[in-house]
Amino acid sequence: MAMGILSRLTPLVGVPVGLTAAGVFVWQASFAAFSATTTDGVDNWAAGSVSFGANAPATAMFTASGLKPGSNGTACVKITYTGSLAASVRLYLKNADLGGTGLAGYLTFQVNEGTGSAADCSDFVSSANDYNAVGMGDTTKTLAAFNTASNSYATGVSGWAATANTTKTYQFKWQVQDNNAANGTTASATFTWEAQNT
User: Fold this and answer.
1) Is 40 within a domain?
2) Structural domain of residue 144, as residue ranges?
3) pLDDT tens digit at each of 198 positions of the chain
4) Distance (Å, rounded) from C-alpha 59 to C-alpha 40?
5) Which residue, 111, 160, 155, is CA-closest to 132?
6) How many domains would you assign to the chain?
7) Is this model's pTM higher than 0.90 or not?
8) Does 156 fall in a domain?
9) Is residue 179 part of a domain?
10) Is 99 helix (H, G, I), strand (E, B) or coil?
C-alpha cells in the first residue's frame, strides 16, 4: 500500500523542479548584456566659394559713336576675385553677347592684363598679352575674331591663377580699320570673366 502512494507522489515532485529551471532561463535572458556608447562633436560641412566682387568700374568700358577709320579707344577694368577656393579665371565673349551690324569685324582688338586701378589705364602696368600679341597693326585680330576664338571658358584667355581677394586689371584697346565696309555699322559686346576652382 505504501508503495502505491509513493508512486503517485513522484510526478508531483517533478513539477516544481521543472518550473524552477524555466525561471532561471527567463531571468538570465532579461539581463543579456552591458552596453556603452560614445560620440564625437557636431560634424559640419560647408562648400567653398567661387565668386567675384564688384568690377571697377562697374559700368560699360566703351560708349563711342561717330567713329571713322583710325578712331580708337583704351579702357581698363579691375577684377577682384573673392572666392575662398583657389581658381583659374578666364575671359571670353559669349556668342550671344556679341551684337551689332558688322562693325566687330572691322575693330582691331587687343587685350592685355596686369595691374592698375584707373579706368583710363593711366596707371596700368602690363604683365601679359592675352590677345593680339602682334599689336594693333594686325587687322586679322578683330573683336569678331576674338569672339570666334574665345567664346567659352574652355577657349577663354588669361588663365589667371586667383586666390581669395586678389585682383587683376585687364586693358582693352580697339581701333576702327580703314575699310569702307565698316561705314554705318555698329557693334556691341559684353565680356565674361569666369572662375573655376582648381
Assistant:
1) no
2) 72-197
3) 444 433 343 444 444 444 444 444 454 556 678 776 767 777 777 667 778 887 877 888 888 889 899 999 999 999 999 999 999 999 999 999 999 999 999 999 999 999 999 999 999 999 999 999 888 888 999 999 999 999 999 999 999 999 999 999 999 999 999 999 999 999 999 999 999 999
4) 51
5) 111
6) 1
7) no
8) yes
9) yes
10) strand
